Amino acid sequence: MTLLIQDKYPEKLFREDGKRLDGRDKDDLRNIKMEVGVIKNADGSAYIEWGNNKIFASVYGPREVHPHHLAKPDKGILRVFYRMTTYSVFDRKRPAPGRREKEISMIIADCLEPVLFLELYPGTSFEIFIEVVDADGGTRCASTTVAALALADAGVPMRSLVTSCAVGKIDGQLVTDLSGIEDKAGEADLPVAMTWFNDELSLLQFDGKVNKDEFNEFLEMAEEALGQVYQIQLDALKRKYQQIRDNVQEEGGDPEE
User: Fold this and answer.
1) Which domain holds residue 73?
2) Of 85, 135, 154, 212, whose CA is between 20 and 30 Å from 96?
3) Structural domains counted in the chain
């Protein structure tokens, strides 16, 4: 593992054998682990480990809106609170939410709203609290992905899950799923998110410089990566409900009731 110390980054982000610094090929995702139902007091919750990122998401609602003037008479509202713990990064961050955290909160809300039937819940709110306990590049994508899982775990009516991932450019080559080092020292970064009920992007941001052909290749790489992450989301949900089914059968009940 290459450490980041005082903003000093390696001159090259590929090893002599052609692998990235963490041993991945250009189109490899980092190791991803997802689990749902991890916070008992929440209406729905999920946890994700994506590379060195470790993130919790909890959902509460529908419930009364505070302050009341934010309520909408024709539909519910979605509020997202993305926070990074003070110890989640190498240089200790301030406890109060910063501008970047507020911006990412808004981005995640915009990604998730298209899949929710908020018109079924006028005058109420759903709130998602995202806690990043360890950060290593791509936290907005991982947070969007785990927040969608938490909504599904809460039983909130959804058109589909939302899946997010980033592609980028390092040392002149296009790669999938930037690590923290690659994000900071690379040449381009393209976070994307997809809503699966219509196969459309609900997030498309870009930082850096690429030509038109590279951008089109970016989108193809992103589509492939999103499909892989989406399957991990589905598997996490299936595991929970398979466990519920198994527990009911062990107790002699009917899992269909």
Assistant:
1) 32-247
2) 154
3) 1
Q: For residue range 143-161, what is the model confidence (pLDDT) as tens digits?
A: 999 999 999 999 999 999 9
The rounded distance, in Å, linking the Cα atoms of 257 and 171 is 57
Give 234: exposed, middle or buried? Use CB within 10 Å, 0-12, 13-18, 19+: middle
* Token pair belonging to 183: 């994000």
Chain centre to alpha carbon of residue 81: 13
β-partners of residue 200 are 195
Q: Which two tokens stand for residue 4?
A: 């980041």
Residue at 9 is within a domain: no
* Helix (H), strand (E) counts: the chain: 4, 10
d(CA 65, CA 227): 35
Give the list of residues 6+ apart from residue 69 with CB closer than 8 angstroms, or none. Answer: none
3-state class (DSSP) for residue 89: coil
Q: 186: domain CATH number? A: 3.30.230.70
Among the ranges given (35-49, 58-72, 224-238, 241-255), the one the predictor scored with the smallest mean pLDDT: 241-255
Considering the domain boundaries, does residue 23 fall inside one? no
The first and second tokens of residue 72, run together, are 């909408």
Tokens of 245: 């089914």
What's at 105, amino acid-wise?
S
